[in-house]
Amino acid sequence: MRNTKVGINPEKLEAASELLRALAHPLRLQIVEFIDQNDAINVNKIYNTLKLEQSITSQHLRVLRTTDLVSTEREGKFIHYRVDYDKIDQTVKAIRNFLKK
After folding, report:
1. Per-residue pLDDT at 4
2. This prediction's pTM
3. By C-alpha distance, which of 52, 54, 48, 60 is closest to 23?
4. Tell me, what's the pLDDT at 76?
5. What residue ranges of the chain have pLDDT lower than 50?
6. For labelling, which of 67, 80, 85, 87 has a CA lying 20 to 30 Å from the CA of 93?
C-alpha cells in the first residue's frame, strides 16, 4: 500500500458531506435566508410566507437542525428557529481554506 500524506477521518468527512449537502439545496438556502432576515421565526411563518407545504418545510428544517445550521428555542407551543452564524462561518472558512490549496 502507498504511503499517503492525506489522513482522512471517515466520520468527519461524512459530517462535512452532510453539512455541504444541507447548504447546497436551493430551498434550504431560501429557508436559511428567510430565518436570517427575521432573526427568529416559527415554522408556521416560514411555510406560510414562502408558500411551502408544512411537511416539506419541516423536512428541510430537520436537515438544517441535524447539521446545526439552525438552532431552536421553544416559546410556549411555538418553536423558533435561528441561524447558527458560528456554524455557517466555520463552514465558509473551511470551504475557502480547501479552495486555496
Report:
1. 58
2. 0.82
3. 60
4. 92
5. 1
6. 80
Q: For residue 19, count CB atoms less than 10 angstroms from its CB and return exposed for 0-12, middle for 13-18, buried for 19 or more.
A: buried
51: cell is: 408558500
User: Measured between alpha carbons, how far is 69 from 85 in angstroms, rounded to an integer?
Assistant: 8
Angle between helix axes 54-66 and 10-24 (nearest 10 degrees) is 150
**Phi/psi of residue 74, nearest 5 degrees:** -85, 135
16 to each of 1, 50, 89, how far by Cα in Å? 27, 28, 14
The C-alpha cell that represents 66 in the structure block: 441535524
The grid cell for 87 is 456554524
Residues paired with 80 in a beta bridge:
42, 73
pLDDT at 6: 63
Whether 79 contacts 35, CB under 8 Å: no
CA distance 22 to 37: 19
pLDDT at site 99: 79
The pLDDT, as a whole number, for residue 51 is 96
